[in-house]
Amino acid sequence: MAVLFLLFSSAHPEPAPGSSPLPPSPSESPLCEPTAGVGAELRLTIIYDNNDYDPRLETKWGFSCLIEGLKKTILFDTGGDSATLLKNMKKLKIDPARIDAVVLSHIHGDHVGGLSGFLEKNSGVIVYLPRSFPKSLKDGARSIGAGVDEVSEPRELLAGVYTTGELGNGIKEQSLAIKTSKGLVVVTGCAHPGVVKIVLAARQVAAEDTIYLVIGGFHLAGAPTSRIESIVKEFRHLSVQRVGPCHCSGDETRRLFRLEYGDDYVDSGVGKRISVP
Questions:
Q1: What is the structure's pLDDT at 193?
Q2: pTM for this one?
Q3: Averaged pLDDT, 52-61
Q4: If you write DSSP's letter for every residue of 190-238 in order, what string do you get?
Q5: Widest distance between CA atoms in the chain
Q6: Residues 179 and 210 sit within 8 Å (Cβ to Cβ)
Q7: How much is the pLDDT for 39?
Q8: Do residues 120 and 132 touch, judged by C-beta distance below 8 A?
Q9: Section 172-195 average pLDDT
Q10: pLDDT tens per residue, range 246-262
Q11: From CA 249, how far away is CA 256, in angstroms rounded?
């Protein structure tokens, strides 16, 4: 069954642009330091990413983020391979057995490649994936023992956790919107449908206008500076308070958002931990 996952994920790679990641910022934003116990805050940990942050961890093209502090612990995407995913989890002292749900953003191998290896460690999860995913992947997850919930329309997945539903005309992709006391935290995989469109969809499904943080891949690596600048302006127009572009966002995107947001820019890479009240 692992072979089935491997064959499928490798057939749909997300090409790396080849640009070098920005180094970590020497200073941390205040929201990045945990201040309370479980249940008092939302905690995000980037487990798999192609941008450096924690030197103990392996950096590879792809994305995975652990979401804690809710009633259910969520693994959002699984990176490009299970060996790296599980190795980084071990170094971060994250036990796969305590994860309750897996949310897959889209079909590319750098986001689903670690799924089979993870399910071998913990098959007692529900995998929330876009309905457009191939039957072979769904059947493979079920055969290992995982539950599969096919997502098409925007809806509440878990208490306070919403999916945008499948967005995009080509590559179908879902993102998450999580309610916090500060506003919504929006987590994206690659933002193929457009990161601004995702923010708008998140506001609509969660019935919440305040966007506290948008983090994940913005799919802007190699984009013209003028396009990136226009998206930065749209984020400001939408009153997005904090940003953490990583994965496929690109160096120029990270530079321009850092320039615009200053202390509200969250430098993100593998091993980054973020806490939100």
A1: 97
A2: 0.88
A3: 98
A4: S-TT-HHHHHHHHHHHHT---EEEEEEE-S-TT--HHHHHHHHHHHHHT
A5: 48
A6: no
A7: 55
A8: no
A9: 97
A10: 999 999 999 999 999 99
A11: 11
From start to end of 32-188, where are the E strands?
42-49, 63-68, 74-76, 101-103, 126-130, 147-151, 155-158, 161-163, 176-180, 183-188
Cα 255 to Cα 11, 63, 104, 258: the distances in Å are: 32, 20, 28, 5
Distance CA 76, CA 85 (A): 12
For 189-211, give one letter per residue: b (16+ CB within 10 A) or e.
bbbbbbbbebbbbbbebbebeeb
Report the pLDDT value the prediction gives residue 277, as an integer from 0 to 100.
Answer: 84
Alpha carbons 260 and 192: distance in angstroms, whole number: 23
> What does the pLDDT read at residue 23?
38
How far is Cα 37 from Cα 28, in angstroms, rounded to an integer? 20
Contacts of 99 (CB under 8 A, 6+ apart): 66, 73, 74, 75, 122, 125
- Tokens standing for residue 265: 């820019």
Q: Which two tokens stand for residue 137?
A: 């992947």
Superfamily of domain 2-10+33-269: Ribonuclease Z/Hydroxyacylglutathione hydrolase-like (3.60.15.10)
Q: Are 94 and 79 contacting, i.e. CB atoms less than 8 angstroms apart?
A: no
Q: Which two tokens stand for residue 32?
A: 């990045």
Q: Which one-letter amino acid corresponds to residue 193?
A: P
